[in-house]
Amino acid sequence: MPKRVLQGTVVSDKNDKTVVVRVERRFTHPMMKKVVRMSKKYKAHDEANACKVGDVVTIEETRPISKDKNWVVVTGAQAE
Predict the structure, then answer these.
(1) Which InterPro entries does the annotation name (predicted)?
(2) Do β-strands 18-28 and 5-12 pair in parallel, antiparallel, or remain unpaired?
């Protein structure tokens, strides 16, 4: 099964080797027929502490790294 890949914005980098990434999705509401924006936050592993708040990063699903960290930063500040 392929790993899920998401793109989002870093909203917090206060933890060591961890960033919080907000991923936004847009869809049409089934009854109201309006475009709705919903977002969800994911904790992602950032080994080099390279990502800063506001960076647009790509995260990939991986094995559990901690209690609530199952994602790792693939591109973004680390690619530079």
Answers:
(1) NA-bd_OB-fold, Ribosomal_uS17, Ribosomal_uS17_bact/chlr, Ribosomal_uS17_CS
(2) antiparallel
Per-residue pLDDT tens digits for 34-73: 999 999 999 999 999 999 999 999 999 999 999 999 999 9
Dist. CA 66–CA 34, nearest whole Å: 38
**50, 10 in Cβ contact below 8 A?**
no
Into how many domains does the chain fold?
1
Helix (H, G, I), strand (E, B) or coil at 77: helix
Higher pLDDT, 69 or 75: 69
CATH of the domain at 71: 2.40.50.140
